[in-house]
Amino acid sequence: MKKKKMVSIVIPTYNSEKTIGKCLKSIKNLSYKNIEIIIVDNFSIDETQRIAKIFGVRIIESKAERAKARNIGIKISKGDFILSIDSDMELSKNVIKECINIFHEDMKVGGIVIPERSIGENFWVKVRDFERSFYADTAIESARFFRKDLIEIAGGYEENLVFFEESTLPQKIERLGFDVKKRIKAEILHHENVLLSKWMKKKYYYGKTAYQYKKNFSKYTFQQTSFFYRFSIFLLDKRFYSKPLIALGVISLKFFEYFAAGIGYISTNKNI
Q1: How far apart are CA 110 and CA 176, in angstroms?
Q2: What is the mean pLDDT of residues 80-90?
Q3: Is pLDDT of 1 > 80?
Q4: Do 230 and 261 form a contact (C-beta atoms < 8 A)?
Q5: What tens digit of pLDDT does each residue of 172-223 get?
Q6: CB atoms < 10 A from the CB of 178, how many?
Q7: CATH (one of 1.20.1600.10, 3.90.220.20, 1.10.760.10, 3.90.550.10) for 7-194
Q8: Cβ contact 124:225 at 8 Å
């Protein structure tokens, strides 16, 4: 029997003790077993590393933003495929199995999109989950599962960006002539702690590298950043009006995000 291809799962962490156990447990429960797990930890001061060691994963320490951390993990990985996730995510049982099946069917596939669900207790998490449900087959989504050989050719993630950093690698692989838009059914469950003050600070920080992102990755920039395009996705879909309160929350949250990211953009690019 032909040996199954290995999949390397790369996870950047920083003070992730609340979610890393759930993340790693979901990986251990995957139906596809030929995997390795690499954690690139930004010198956490909580119990992140202790919890991770219980699961027998490989841990590398590096003072790095997420894009650089992902590249570090990819560089030392042994897998034929790479799955890049965050420490607050859980994988449903057949995520990797479905991704592998697509690659076996089509050699021109370079990256695969895995749909995400936001889970949590507060109102804004419900808003995020509803918002995400409208992004299927749009440029808002980005592939997370890749052929490692194509990552090496493409040069990995862009380490100087935090604005849409997850989108940089699939776009670079697409430039090589490969499809990065295939989408599976199995989902990622994303434990999002959406507290407005912290959320806005994060969007402000992202906005600081927005200009450089737009300059280097212009193909999808309009769809990913345009206020009018983003709102048209919601407002032209009848399903959006099925949950009026949550829909109002989506509109409000996007206004807040655009404002915060815009301030970050202006603060870094005053002369542009």
Answers
A1: 9
A2: 98
A3: no
A4: no
A5: 999 999 999 999 999 999 999 888 999 999 999 999 999 999 999 999 999 9
A6: 19
A7: 3.90.550.10
A8: no
Chain mean pLDDT for the chain: 95
* Residue ranges of E strands in the chain: 7-13, 35-41, 58-61, 81-84, 89-91, 111-113, 116-119, 145-147, 182-183, 188-191
Query: Using alpha carbons only, how large is the chain's radius of gyration in Å?
Result: 18
DSSP states along 66-133: HHHHHHHHHHH---SEEEE--TTEEE-TTHHHHHHHHHHH-TTB-EEE--EEEE-SSHHHHHHHHHHT
Predicted TM-score (pTM) of this structure: 0.94
Domain boundaries, the chain: 7-194
In the structure, what pLDDT confidence band is assigned to residue 268 with cuts at 50, 70 and 90?
A: confident
Position 208, amino acid? K
Half-sphere exposure of 248 (CA within 13 A, CB side): 2
In this prediction, residues 147-176 reach a mean pLDDT of: 97
Tokens for 162, please give them. 């935090």
CA distance 168 to 161: 9
